[in-house]
Amino acid sequence: MVIRTGLAERILKGDHLAAARLITAIEDEVPAALEELKCLYPHTGKAYVVGITGAPGVGKSTLIDRLIGGLRERGMTVGVVAVDPTSPFSGGAILGDRIRMDHNRDRGVFIRSLASRGQSGGLSRATLSAIQVMDALGQEIILVETVASGQAEVAVTTVADTTIVVLVPGLGDEIQLMKAGILEAAHIFVVNKAARDGADTLRRGLEAMLGLRARPGGSWAPAVVLTEAISDDGVAELAEVVLRRREFLEKRRQPLNPVAG
Ligand SMILES: Nc1nc2c(ncn2[C@@H]2O[C@H](COP(=O)(O)OP(=O)(O)OP(=O)(O)O)[C@@H](O)[C@H]2O)c(=O)[nH]1
Ligand SMILES: [Mg+2]
């Protein structure tokens, strides 16, 4: 397969079709695609990357769908990478539930699903490349959904500025996640399906565990947010926490002593 040159240039102008083509070519390991990707490197590093992980079926995609709505309302452009998705995105809610957003028409949203192709541990190169392409395309926030399945959920923390772990009451995930080391790596914990019995118990359990973590002054204090994604409850609060974390990182990035450079 020969890919048309100039994809990188078109992506930098915000061309979604070119971005989709390049990601496909990268997945297919077309050599020319890697050259195009290299041209994009100098234009990456601007996006805020948020990893969202958790056991199958906890509501990651539904939450992302809802978050897209909240982020678009705030005028942000959004990219979504879903690794090994088992359920489709239905369309984010914007302005509550009154307008269903069509991701295919909204130029501010770019969604891509990828197969991890059996790579154990680590994220596939295609995943990292898709994030870079969306970054170069100009998506300001990129949400990366991965199913917690051993090491994959830890891997996402290596590329994400912020890691969100989604739990639901009654699964006993606290214990699974501790084993995987995700408790230490996560910045935001979501208790989704919070209308179920046990949501408060899970929240208190998480808060107790997180309270035991020694934190040096000035570091991020992990947040616990309760949501009922299907009815949008708590999603606005989650969006606020996600953006507060970005502000926190931006402040920290400023040099401590600008005069000394
Ligand atoms: N009752 C209830 N159901 C929910 C909630 N959030 C999601 N669901 C439902 O849970 C099911 C799984 O939701 P998804 O968003 O596909 O979950 P996921 O974590 O992305 O699943 P995988 O990608 O398969 O791991 C769907 O039937 C959702 O409608 C919630 O807050 N409350
Ligand atoms: Mg999903």
Given as residue ranges, the uncertain stretches (5+ residues, pLDDT < 50) are 91-104
* Major sheet summary line: 7 strands, parallel
Count of discrete structural domains: 2
Instruction: Tell me the radius of gyration.
Output: 19 Å
Strand content: 15-25%
What global shape is seen?
globular
What would the CATH topology of the largest domain be? Rossmann fold
Distance between the termini: 48 Å
Ligand inventory reads: guanosine-5'-triphosphate, magnesium ion
Average pLDDT taken over every residue: 82
Structural class: alpha/beta
CATH architecture of the largest domain, please? 3-Layer(aba) Sandwich
- DSSP summary, beta strand count: 9
Looking at the chains present, what oligomeric state does this protein adopt?
Answer: single chain
The percent range for helix content is 40-55%
Highest CATH level, the class of the largest domain: Alpha Beta
How would you describe this protein?
The chain is α/β, with parallel strands linked by helices and 261 residues long. The chain folds into two domains: 43 residues, no CATH class; 209 residues, P-loop containing nucleotide triphosphate hydrolases (Rossmann fold, 3-Layer(aba) Sandwich), CATH 3.40.50. Helix content is 41%, strand content 17%. It contains ten helices and nine strands. The strands form two sheets. The protein has a seven-stranded parallel beta sheet with strand order 5-2-6-1-7-8-9, sandwiched between helices. A two-stranded antiparallel sheet has the order 3-4. Helix 2 crosses helix 3, helix 2 runs antiparallel to helix 5 and helix 4 packs across helix 10. It is globular, with a radius of gyration of 19 Å. The chain starts with 6 loop residues before the first helix and ends in an 8-residue tail after the last helix. About 5% of the residues have low confidence. Magnesium ion (MG) binds next to helix 4.
